[in-house]
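Obj.: predict assembly geometry.
Materials: sequence records (below).
Method: joint structure prediction, all chains together.
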Amino acid sequence: EIVLTQSPGTLSLSPGERATLSCRASQSVSTSDLAWYQQKPGQPPRPLIYGASSRATGIPDRFSGSGSGTDFTLTISRLEPEDFAVYYCRHYGSSSLTFGGGTKVEI
Amino acid sequence: EVQLVESGGGLVQPGGSLRLSCAASGFIFSRNWMHWVRQVPGKGLVWVSRIDGEGTGTAYADSVKGRFTISRDNAKNTLYLQMNSLRAEDTGIYYCARDIRYSGHPTFDPWGQGTLVTVSS
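Observations (raw structure tokens):
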């Protein structure tokens, strides 16, 4: 089973700053199978990035995903107040799926 | 509008059973694989199970294998999760999610609002 390790656990930033979130896989994974989700308090997760670098419908271009192999990154170029949330990476395997532990982006 | 609505959660004693439902609308239900994902409030996401469009192919997390059964009724546009031999560690919010491929890349979109399961004596 692939283990995803996200870092940092918490990122304390201000609106307008750049956020860089890391997701490291325990072994090499296909970029096709790596996605990112955003979750705000009291809400279900919503898709941000699929295929490691493609934005989901309605996601603003300040969000970008990159990476390959075992190292993936979610970047928020300029934080808006509504971006303060928890972010999860997810690997989609053939017989099981795993989520990273999450990174909380807080003010 | 594509929508998923879970129901069936509640308080159950250890060793007990519960069946969750997820009613789907706004899309052709039988064309999509579906998943269940659990989250302890304030904690991370844990994948539980998935089922293919026809209901013939399933997969489970090791922690629930042999105790939980995922199924679907495509005529009723409904996904189910039968949970037996429940343990305290099964406690959490259970979300159903649609498995959809954008340019061939899998993602979960949308997610339901979730239903809370509490296993406690």
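Conclusions so far: Chain A has a mean pLDDT of 95.
To do: check interface contacts against the pulldown list.
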